[in-house]
């Protein structure tokens, strides 16, 4: 599945020289991030470097680099006494991350429209949306269809970033989207059992089509506005998911939900 984290890992591999030490650093980062996002290392858990070395069976150097990187991403907090603690996030934290993602995606969409997008990438984006359309023709989506949607949706958003050709803004966007649930498909699988799930995806798909049309027509302001509105779907999904379900069933579907502190 093509996720923001996968894209970050690919970027990390591409930006470092080849060699076993750099590969070990990327492997440590991926494995440690997965432990956090899978819920195995829950919010509030204290992490000692030596314990992670023993758990992952790696040397201290790549583990130390991974811990520093995850602190930069906001998943860990360094403790004054040494070591780290797994972060938890308020609903507002996640909502703000989604809003920031929408702002940056809107900026990239506007730049793509104003600068003129590469035709080959536009064609690939249209093909991606055609495949999403084919999925959504079914009256009801099963788990396999939702998983396919997540992969295609993530790919489409990545293509949007490529349309703007702005590595600087894309790096900031990837950092914002690295928080749990802030990615473009952050809540899709949690809503798979919802009676309105397919309807929400159809609305999102219409916005995909509209923003691609705006970019092709060189309508920067319109493209930016659509992507800002697109992110607000995720904010509404956040509120609905947390309001409609107790934490434990949600944790079964996506353990990282435990990282979100509920409002009292």
TrEMBL record:
CDD domains given in the database record: WHTH_GntR
Entry keywords, A to Z: DNA-binding, Transcription, Transcription regulation
Describe the location of the HTH gntR-type domain by residue ranges: 22-89
- The coiled-coil regions, if any, are none
Q: Which Pfam families match?
A: FCD, GntR
Protein name per Swiss-Prot or TrEMBL = GntR family transcriptional regulator
């Amino acid at each position: 599945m093509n996720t923001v984290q996968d894209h970050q890992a690919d970027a990390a591999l591409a930006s470092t020289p080849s060699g076993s030490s750099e590969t070990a650093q990327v492997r440590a980062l991926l494995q440690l991030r997965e432990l956090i996002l899978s819920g195995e290392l829950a919010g509030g858990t204290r992490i000692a470097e030596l314990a992670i070395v023993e758990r992952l069976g790696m040397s201290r150097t790549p583990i130390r680099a991974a811990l520093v990187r995850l602190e930069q991403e906001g998943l860990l907090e360094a403790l004054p006494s040494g070591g780290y603690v797994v972060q938890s996030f308020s609903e507002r934290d996640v909502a703000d991350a989604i809003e920031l993602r929408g702002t940056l995606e809107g900026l990239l969409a506007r730049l793509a429209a104003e600068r003129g997008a590469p035709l080959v990438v536009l064609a690939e984006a249209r093909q991606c949306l055609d495949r999403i359309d084919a999925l959504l023709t079914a009256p009801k989506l099963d788990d396999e269809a939702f998983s396919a949607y997540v992969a295609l949706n993530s790919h489409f958003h990545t293509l949007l970033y490529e349309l703007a050709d702005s590595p600087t803004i894309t790096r900031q966007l990837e950092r914002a989207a690295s928080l749990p649930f802030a990615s473009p498909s952050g809540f899709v699988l949690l809503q798979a059992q919802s009676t309105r799930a397919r309807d929400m995806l159809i609305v999102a798909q219409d916005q995909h089509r509209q923003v691609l049309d705006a970019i092709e027509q060189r309508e920067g302001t319109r493209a930016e506005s659509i992507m800002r509105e697109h992110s607000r779907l995720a904010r509404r999904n956040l509120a609905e998911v947390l309001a409609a379900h107790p934490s434990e069933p949600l944790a079964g579907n996506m353990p990282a939900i435990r990282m979100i502190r509920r409002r009292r």
